[in-house]
């Protein structure tokens, strides 16, 4: 226990949070490598699974991509691929849904997950440093210190969401009808960022890591938890909340 | 972050890793997290079912 305590209370750079949750600093690096590798695997598999079995539940598929695929870029990319596949399958059956709803659902779900991860990490970090790992020779984490380490982009997500909701609810119908044209203009940037997203995922993926001595066992544990648990819980939650909800039909 | 570590770092770390059983407080945190998650899932599913009311 003492060994652990001495190890936890190091106070430098990003190690603090991992120490606070009792992880050795290298562990998050190992897990982040695994997350990236398996995110690529998920991007290649899940959208096709969604097309096969969830083509008639498009928003369940979108929410599933957002919940099950790790990392933001990969989740949104999966949403985009799933949308193309599902819209194409439905179009072949004579049903033409408006584009953007599946991708939008995946992206929105992912952003909400990010927000709640931020909130939960903050709460856990506060509880751990102030109540659980508190020793006489360590001072309580000050509010200022917690604020300095808080991931500020989460506040940006919240503000953007609130501003978007306010604008969406308060926009008169005659202005709202011009929004699709404005979104079309912004699509150029979306395409550029998508290309960058796929490129970044490829650059960061280190499949060689899987063949490192001893790493395979860790990868096997992650694979079992991801494919045996996380994906199915994500599907269940998506089904509960989006079952029967379909995008509007294209006019 | 992963740039700070080499492949030999990973290998050494995995070789020298000791088993670290969960502390009682960690078990308690996991239980509370799962409990809150399941309870909120039920509550939100009910809200989603009943609101907005079907017209």
Q: Show the largest interface.
A: A-B, 25 and 21 residues
Number of helices of chain B: 2
Shape of chain A: globular
Number of helices of chain A: 11
In whole angstroms, the N-to-C terminal distance of chain B is 52 Å
Helix content of chain A: over 70%
Poorly predicted sequence stretches spanning 5 or more consecutive residues of chain B: none
Strand elements of chain B, count = 0
How many β-strand stretches of chain A? 0
Class of secondary structure makeup of chain A: mainly alpha
Strand content of chain B: under 5%
Please bin the fraction of helical residues of chain B. 55-70%
Question: What multimeric state do the chains show?
Answer: heterodimer
The average pLDDT of chain B is: 79
Whole-number average pLDDT of chain A? 80
Regions with little confidence, pLDDT below 50 for 5+ residues of chain A = 1-20
Radius of gyration of chain B: 21 Å
Could you say which structural class the secondary elements and strand pairing of chain B correspond to? mainly alpha
Outline the fold blueprint:
The complex is a heterodimer of chains A (251) and B (55).
Chain A: H1 2-8, H2 15-20, H3 26-53, H4 58-68, H5 72-92, H6 101-132, H7 143-149, H8 153-170, H9 173-176, H10 179-204, H11 215-242
Chain B: H1 7-16, H2 24-50
């Amino acid at each position: 226990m003492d060994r652990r305590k001495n190890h936890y209370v190091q106070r430098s750079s990003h190690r603090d949070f991992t120490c606070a949750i009792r992880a050795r600093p290298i562990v998050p690096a190992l897990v982040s490598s695994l997350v990236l590798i398996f995110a690529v695997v998920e991007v290649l598999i899940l959208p096709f699974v969604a097309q096969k079995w969830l083509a008639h539940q498009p928003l369940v598929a979108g929410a599933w991509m957002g919940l099950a695929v790790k990392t933001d870029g990969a989740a949104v990319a999966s949403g985009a691929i799933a949308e193309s596949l599902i819209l194409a399958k439905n179009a072949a059956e004579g049903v033409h849904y408006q584009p953007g709803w599946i991708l939008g659902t995946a992206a929105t779900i992912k952003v909400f997950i990010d927000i709640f991860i931020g909130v939960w990490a903050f709460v856990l970090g506060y509880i751990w440093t102030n109540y659980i790992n508190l020793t006489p020779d360590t001072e309580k984490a000050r509010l200022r210190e917690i604020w300095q380490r808080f991931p500020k982009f989460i506040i940006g997500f919240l503000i953007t969401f609130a501003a978007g909701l306010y604008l969406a609810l308060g926009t008169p119908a005659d202005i709202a009808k011009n929004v699709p044209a404005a979104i079309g203009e912004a699509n150029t940037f979306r395409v550029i960022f998508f290309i960058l997203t796929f490129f970044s995922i490829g650059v960061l993926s280190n499949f060689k890591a899987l063949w490192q001595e001893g790493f395979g066992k860790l990868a096997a544990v992650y694979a079992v938890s991801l494919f045996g648990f996380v994906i199915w819980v994500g599907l269940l939650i998506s089904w509960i909340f989006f079952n029967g909800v379909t995008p509007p039909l294209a006019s | 972050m992963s740039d700070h570590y080499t492949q030999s770092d990973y290998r050494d770390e995995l070789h020298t890793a000791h088993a670290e059983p969960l502390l009682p407080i960690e078990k308690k945190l996991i239980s509370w997290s799962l409990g809150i998650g399941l309870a909120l899932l039920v509550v939100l599913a009910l809200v989603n079912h009943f609101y907005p009311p079907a017209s």
